[in-house]
Each structure stands twice: as structure tokens, then as C-alpha cells.
Design a protein that fits this description.
Radius of gyration of chain A: 18 Å
Radius of gyration of chain B: 13 Å
Order of helices and strands of chain A: HEHEHEHEHHEHHEHEHHEE
CATH architecture of chain B: 2-Layer Sandwich
Strand content of chain B: 25-35%
Helix content of chain B: 10-25%
Number of domains of chain B: 1
CATH topology of chain A: Rossmann fold
Structural class of chain A: alpha/beta
Strand order of the largest sheet of chain A: 3-2-4-5-7-6-8-9
Mean pLDDT of chain B: 93
Distance between the termini of chain B: 7 Å
Oligomer: heterodimer
Distance between the termini of chain A: 53 Å
CATH topology of chain B: Alpha-Beta Plaits
Number of strands of chain A: 9
Mean pLDDT of chain A: 95
Strand content of chain A: 15-25%
Chain lengths: 258, 76
């Protein structure tokens, strides 16, 4: 059968969701941000809530998320996305509000806002993309950089004695009573992407049921910052990031998983 | 048993040639082209189109969402 006979609208089984704009993504080739954007928008589309969803973009690589997600978006000062989302949600309690943040935004400068939004149990969704490095500014050490991992500000590797330990933000906020659903996922393989999408769906359902804050961490790669090609970066992530940031649900239905 | 034939369509100008789709393909259909697109990236293409089963794995992991997947069932 000729390919032209297969490529017809009636045979279509998968294409990019209409909730992603046609603007070319500003991310490096192979960056997990694009996949994380897309599955978030797919969940919004499947739930039919695109007219009632408001996203808050962070500062970092994903600062232009409002250009790519074809829904109502705003953009917050560095690290303040959970505070802005709190304001939006309290003004319009019936809207779905989510923040999309990287590790530099959420765990470093925004640690305080994140912690307190989680502790207050704001009824929002936080999507946290963790790649263990500051991507946009050129690969500096982040709070989540692994021990011994090289970055432009830790050229001999992160030394625990002087630079401290990587921050497990997701485990930390799972301890707070305000959070209802806390999970850690990845987007490097088809199976992981499908699982991450299910987790984001549960997060938005949590918000619909007004049960509390839902927090989805997505462990991702930064092939430019790690100085690898995209496929090697994904393999490196599996070998090095996952032992320190193990995938899986941490808190389900408001109860910690032991 | 009905045979399933799939095909992918790559938005060549938006593909960044990251190659994440290549290990995701269970039947090794995809490779990066020798030619480059307008931005200088070696875009993904179907090297073995007859092996495609339309599983959507490549499109699901594609960070830039440039792959559309089509599938038909063939009655023998």
C-alpha cells in the first residue's frame, strides 16, 4: 500500500493537540519541556476545560510557555508562580489554575512561595520540571544538581561539603498536610510519557474535586547543560537522576505512600 | 488476522533532529536524514516505511510534536 493512501485525514491516529500553538518551540532539540507542555495540554483538551484553564508561566527556559500553550496564560516574576496562581484561583475559584515551573524557579528562588502555597493547600496544580541544572542561563548549578555533577559554576563537580545536598523538593512538600496528590514522573520513553499524562490528569481531577494542591514533578533532561546529545542525556538521566529522584507516586489521596 | 499498516508524517521544517523517536520505535522505522531542513537539522524520516505499525510511540515522545501518525487495517 502506498504511503499516500495511508496518510489521509480519516486514518489519523495521533497528532499534536490543537491546544499547542504552531509557534516553533524555543527549546533545545530533545528537551523534555516540549513533551511536558504537550501532555499538559492534552489533559486539558481531554477534560474539555480549555476555556476555564489559566496557566502561570515561570522564569527560566519555559518562560515563553504562554506562546506555546493555546489557553489563557500569564507569567509571574521569578519563583512567584504559586503566589500568582493563588491569587487567580482565589479570585476565580471555578477556574482551573496551574503553574509550570522549572527547578531553578520552583526550588531555588521560589522555594518559599512553593512551600507556603503547598502548606496553605491552595487548590492549584503545580507542574515541576526538574533537570538538575539552570538551563536558560547557561548550565549553572541548581539546588537539584546531583553530587559530583559538573556545571558551569561547579566545574569540578558538586561538592557536598561546601555546596550542600540536592534538594528533594517533591519529598519535602509531600510532608505538608495541604498537598493531596504528589508524584514524580518522567517523559523520556513512550511508557513514561503516558504515565506522566495520567498523573497530570489525576492532578487536574484533584483540583476539580477541590481536594487540595496537586504536585507533579517531571524529571527531565538538559542535554545542552549536561553537554550530551539528547539520547545520551536521556540514558544519563536514567542512570544518575533516577536513583536520587526515584519515579513514582509519593502521596495519593492525601496519604503518604510508604 | 487483519494486518495493520502505519505511516508517519514529519513536519520537516519543525523537526530538530534530536533523535529521541529512534529508540522509541519498536520496529526501527525511523532514522535521521542525511539532508537538513531550513534550520540545518537532520530531520527524522521513515527509513523502512513498510515496517511501521502506527503505534504512535514516536509521536508521543517527540518533544516538538512534529510527528503525525496514520494507521489503516488491511483485510487479507
Amino acid at each position: 500500500m502506498d504511503i499516500k493512501e495511508i496518510i489521509k485525514p480519516e486514518n489519523l491516529v495521533y497528532q499534536k493537540t490543537k491546544l499547542m500553538t504552531d509557534a516553533p518551540l524555543s527549546y533545545c532539540p530533545g528537551c523534555g519541556h516540549g513533551t511536558a507542555h504537550r501532555i499538559t495540554m492534552e489533559v486539558v483538551e481531554e477534560m474539555g476545560i480549555w476555556e476555564d484553564t489559566i496557566g502561570v508561566a515561570p522564569v527560566g527556559c519555559s518562560v515563553l510557555a504562554y506562546d506555546f500553550m493555546n489557553i489563557d496564560m500569564t507569567q509571574a516574576a521569578h519563583g512567584r508562580a504559586p503566589a500568582v496562581a493563588t491569587g487567580i484561583k482565589r479570585t476565580w475559584p471555578e477556574k482551573f489554575v496551574f503553574t509550570y515551573q522549572g527547578d531553578g524557579d520552583l526550588a531555588a528562588i521560589g522555594g518559599n512561595e512553593t512551600l507556603h502555597a503547598c502548606n496553605r493547600g491552595e487548590n492549584i496544580v503545580i507542574i515541576f520540571v526538574n533537570n538538575g541544572i539552570y538551563g536558560m542561563t547557561g548550565g549553572q548549578m541548581a539546588p537539584t544538581t546531583l553530587p559530583g555533577m559538573k556545571s558551569s559554576t561547579s566545574p569540578y563537580g558538586r561538592d557536598i561539603a561546601t555546596m550542600g545536598h540536592p534538594l528533594k523538593m517533591t519529598e519535602l512538600i509531600a510532608q505538608l498536610p495541604g498537598t493531596y496528590f504528589v508524584t514524580r514522573q518522567a517523559v523520556h520513553t513512550p511508557a513514561a510519557v503516558r504515565k506522566a499524562k495520567k498523573a497530570i490528569r489525576i492532578a487536574f481531577e484533584t483540583q476539580r474535586e477541590k481536594k487540595g494542591l496537586a504536585f507533579v514533578e517531571i524529571v527531565s533532561n538538559c542535554n545542552s547543560g549536561w553537554k550530551m546529545n539528547p539520547v545520551d542525556a536521556n540514558n544519563w538521566m536514567v542512570d544518575n537522576m533516577f536513583p536520587y529522584f526515584p519515579l513514582g507516586d509519593i502521596k495519593v489521596n492525601g496519604e503518604l505512600i510508604k | 488476522m487483519a494486518k495493520i499498516i502505519g505511516a508517519i508524517e514529519v513536519d520537516v521544517e519543525k523537526c530538530k533532529g534530536c533523535g529521541v523517536c529512534i529508540p522509541a520505535c519498536p520496529t526501527d522505522v525511523i532514522l535521521l536524514a542525511k539532508n537538513v531542513n531550513g534550520k540545518g537539522y537532520h530531520y527524522a524520516y521513515m527509513e523502512k516505511p513498510e515496517a511501521c505499525i502506527g503505534c504512535t510511540n514516536c509521536a508521543v515522545v517527540c518533544p516538538d510534536g512534529v510527528i503525525s501518525v496514520y494507521k489503516v487495517k488491511m483485510a487479507n
